[in-house]
């Protein structure tokens, strides 16, 4: 981290020092890597992430549903086993801990879940729920535990009389306060908040967020805040990590990311936030297609199949944007049709929900290129691909288009590169010097 960045951090109320608490190093968490499902292809829920969490900060983690946020949070808590990589907590690799070492370490960390209804045991009183971690860790005497629970009720804005009540007697916001009290019981340093307010009414959300903010200050807590509501993140995080298909695409100070996103995925995600004023001029970008399956992520950059700023091959740099978009749409339709990871049920559902799947290839071409004036070299390769499709050879069709229109974005994994001097990094080939000249397209689209 640069000096400038640390200065900024020290000004922030919640980040007391720039010291690193958690270091995540090439972490991967795959599901089903033991084989079995679908020819043994594992779900690459987290696929090689690197980042630090600074002591005292709130690091936001955002990204579309299914991109791996909860899996990452759970792996940091050791509720999920890492497939590869390290998580160093205060310098110790916790992915190798077991038995009593693991149990002892667990006191330092806690998780608050999205849905208090499923995370609080309905058969236990609120007092018992909050006391559970104290019992598990054999904390002091039973009398001191009861006293501690009373204090905790007060800390989270509940009262002593709530001790003997059951979760069903509480509102959503109150239940989440119980979950927070339970998380605080053993005085952890680090808390993963997994969409802690998503299930709550907007008016209650603000109260719970304020409580979390106060608690952070009072107890010097460090938070990883998972959220899909970007406005929540913008208001309470010091830094933000943006995740897509198991990868962190961009991470940096919250103001940098919101005011001037560097990664095309962040740009797409932010442009999807509805403007408070519906008449406001904003160049909205809608992402093409659906996220690829984490069982079969794209080669090169994981965002390459949907990226509106994908680098084009040299000979197509100056091609009309709409023609290029047509090529991309055609390729996306083929990719979705050829998605071998989808079950028959998903295919049927998609067929009903998404016209392109049932479409005749001529219709797809018509939709993609319409009245556009398609240059003859493009037309020739598109025609060749169409012939393959007509012979039911999706793979050759995809290869033909890839050979002609593919670029570095599909063939090489992007490096994580620094952007500016505030400690921000982003994974995108466009940050490389040799591609800087091809920024024009990007700028046009995001102005
Ligand atoms: P997010 O929290 O961002 O919505 P998740 O971490 O829950 O994402 O899921 C990431 C991917 O891993 C998804 O494709 C999801 O279907 C898959 N996944 C999550 N949990 C499991 C599990 N226990 N077994 C198999 N796949 C899982
Ligand atoms: Mg989740």
From TrEMBL:
<dbReference type="GO" id="GO:0055085">
    <property type="term" value="P:transmembrane transport"/>
</dbReference>
<dbReference type="InterPro" id="IPR017871">
    <property type="entry name" value="ABC_transporter-like_CS"/>
</dbReference>
<keyword id="KW-0067">ATP-binding</keyword>
<feature type="region of interest" description="Disordered">
    <location>
        <begin position="272"/>
        <end position="301"/>
    </location>
</feature>
<feature type="region of interest" description="Disordered">
    <location>
        <begin position="405"/>
        <end position="429"/>
    </location>
</feature>
<dbReference type="Pfam" id="PF08352">
    <property type="entry name" value="oligo_HPY"/>
</dbReference>
<keyword id="KW-0547">Nucleotide-binding</keyword>
<dbReference type="InterPro" id="IPR027417">
    <property type="entry name" value="P-loop_NTPase"/>
</dbReference>
<dbReference type="InterPro" id="IPR003593">
    <property type="entry name" value="AAA+_ATPase"/>
</dbReference>
<comment type="similarity">
    <text>Belongs to the ABC transporter superfamily.</text>
</comment>
<dbReference type="InterPro" id="IPR003439">
    <property type="entry name" value="ABC_transporter-like_ATP-bd"/>
</dbReference>
<dbReference type="InterPro" id="IPR050319">
    <property type="entry name" value="ABC_transp_ATP-bind"/>
</dbReference>
<dbReference type="Pfam" id="PF00005">
    <property type="entry name" value="ABC_tran"/>
</dbReference>
<protein>
    <submittedName>
        <fullName>ABC transporter ATP-binding protein</fullName>
    </submittedName>
</protein>
<dbReference type="InterPro" id="IPR013563">
    <property type="entry name" value="Oligopep_ABC_C"/>
</dbReference>
<feature type="domain" description="ABC transporter">
    <location>
        <begin position="22"/>
        <end position="270"/>
    </location>
</feature>
<dbReference type="GO" id="GO:0005524">
    <property type="term" value="F:ATP binding"/>
</dbReference>
<keyword id="KW-0813">Transport</keyword>
